[in-house]
């Protein structure tokens, strides 16, 4: 069996532009799907996928590790976020082909399932305590048992007590509204400094959050470890880290006890499995990052069912992302906040190419600014740029 083509397919999924990867083979009807979506850089990722194509065309797609090494180690330069996103999507598609060729879901090829269902969480918001509580309750009423929010606004290097008090009041309202049987997850989004992360974290502790994600940027594990030592709430991180090498120092410094590699960026299914195995040595859990589309979800789920230290999986609520869900055929179903083991071979979902063609991406300045800057650009009150 040989690879005959590696194609990026871009589509407007409403809240973001999705980058899918299709790998074709010389076996009639046998092809694989992956996802390499990246905020603000979809054309760059698509171009990188095309750059990788001549490096692996003609090779056997079942030699997944061999091809991963070719892409990662060849051409002298190690990969950054663009290259790793491209590799990640290609890796997912290779696993999809291998599973289809053998007639098995990918998790069966990773050692088989170690659980009967995978717990999922989704997101809620609200500018006021009342609005946040109402949105949280709406998720619980639909069967979600774990929900996540960003609890504070962009914060200065050092800020006063009022911003902390207001954020804690919002969390208190949510906890009172949903009760103690629902897990509340907090995402600091890397937007605060260690000193402010500690102040926020201590203010939130009475409401027993399930974890705090990215209390500070993960680029300085020692700073994150400072926060971890000061708080009793588990710390999670990893959405902006690439490969097992990017996670090494997090584990060695004790900066986090829950790792969140992204299947679209960290290296695909292959690398998520390795990161999870490395985390086991440090008694750390796995909660893959996934704010993307149904192909990414399907790829994550394959690892979730095979990883002994899997804890919980992020998922954009399908009800609030109908455009994204329309881009695949038969997306995985969430039942009472869980996904059951997929039974279809490969990763279990197929991209609808006709649907993608009906939703071509709009790269106008207005559209790009709306998707990227409106969602990811923030300012302090004095006009300075803040981490979003």
List the helices and strands and how they pair.
Blueprint: E1 3-12, E2 17-25, E3 31-35, H1 42-56, H2 64-73, H3 81-102, H4 106-109, E4 118-123, H5 129-141, E5 146-149, H6 161-178, E6 183-187, H7 194-204, E7 212-213, H8 221-230, E8 235-237, H9 243-252, E9 258-259, H10 268-281, E10 285-286, H11 294-306, E11 313-314, H12 322-325, E12 328-329, E13 338-339, E14 350-351, H13 353-358, H14 365-376, E15 378-379, E16 385-386
Parallel strand pairs: 4-5, 4-11, 5-6, 6-7, 7-8, 8-9, 9-10
Antiparallel strand pairs: 1-2, 2-3, 4-13, 12-14, 15-16
Helix pairs in contact: 1-3, 2-3, 3-10, 5-6, 6-7, 7-8, 9-10, 10-11
What is the 3D shape? globular
How many H/I helices? Answer: 14
CATH architecture of the largest domain: Alpha-Beta Barrel
CATH superfamily of the largest domain: Enolase-like C-terminal domain
Top CATH class of the largest domain: Alpha Beta
Distance between the termini: 46 Å
Based on secondary structure, the structural category is alpha/beta
Helix content: 40-55%
Count of all domains: 2
Please mark out the parts with pLDDT under 50 across 5 or more consecutive residues, or reply none.
none
Q: H/E series, N to C?
A: EEEHHHHEHEHEHEHEHEHEHEHEEEHHEE
Q: Got a strand count?
A: 16
Largest sheet: 9 strands, mixed
Q: Strand fraction band? A: 15-25%
| Fold-level CATH name of the largest domain | TIM Barrel
Mean pLDDT: 96
Round the Cα radius of gyration to an integer and report it. Answer: 20 Å
């Amino acid at each position: 069996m040989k690879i005959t083509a590696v194609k990026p397919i871009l589509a407007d999924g409403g809240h973001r532009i999705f980058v899918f990867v299709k790998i074709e083979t010389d076996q009639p009807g046998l092809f694989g799907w992956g996802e390499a979506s990246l905020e603000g850089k979809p054309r760059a990722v698509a171009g990188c996928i095309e750059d990788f194509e001549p490096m692996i065309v003609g090779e056997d797609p079942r030699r997944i590790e061999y091809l991963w090494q070719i892409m990662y180690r060849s051409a002298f330069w190690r990969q950054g976020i663009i290259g790793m996103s491209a590799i990640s999507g290609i890796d997912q598609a290779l696993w999809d082909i291998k599973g289809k060729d053998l007639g098995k879901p990918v998790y069966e090829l990773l050692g088989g399932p170690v659980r009967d269902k995978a717990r999922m969480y989704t997101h809620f918001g609200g500018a006021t305590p009342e609005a946040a509580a109402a949105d949280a309750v709406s998720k619980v009423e639909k069967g979600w048992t774990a929900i996540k929010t960003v609890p504070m606004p962009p914060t200065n290097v050092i800020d006063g007590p009022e911003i902390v008090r207001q954020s804690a009041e919002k969390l208190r309202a949510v906890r009172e509204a949903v009760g103690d049987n629902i897990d509340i997850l907090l995402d600091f989004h890397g937007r605060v400094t260690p000193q402010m992360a500690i102040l926020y974290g201590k203010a939130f502790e009475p409401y027993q959050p399930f974890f705090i994600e990215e209390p500070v940027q993960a680029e300085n594990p020692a700073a994150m470890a400072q926060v971890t030592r000061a708080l009793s709430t588990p710390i999670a991180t990893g959405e902006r880290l690439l490969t097992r090498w990017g996670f090494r120092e997090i584990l060695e410094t004790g900066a986090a006890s829950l790792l969140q590699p992204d299947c679209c960026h960290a290296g695909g299914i292959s690398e998520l499995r390795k990161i999870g195995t490395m985390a086991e040595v440090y008694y750390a859990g796995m909660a893959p990052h996934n704010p993307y589309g149904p192909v990414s979800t399907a790829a994550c789920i394959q690892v979730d069912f095979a990883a002994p230290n899997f804890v919980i999986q992020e998922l954009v609520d399908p009800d609030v992302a109908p455009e994204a869900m329309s881009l695949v055929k038969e997306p995985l179903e969430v039942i009472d906040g869980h996904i059951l083991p997929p039974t279809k071979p490969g990763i279990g979902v197929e991209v609808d190419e006709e649907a993608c063609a009906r939703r071509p991406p709009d790269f106008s300045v207005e559209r790009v600014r709306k998707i990227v800057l409106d969602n990811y650009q923030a300012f302090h009150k004095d006009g300075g740029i803040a981490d979003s």
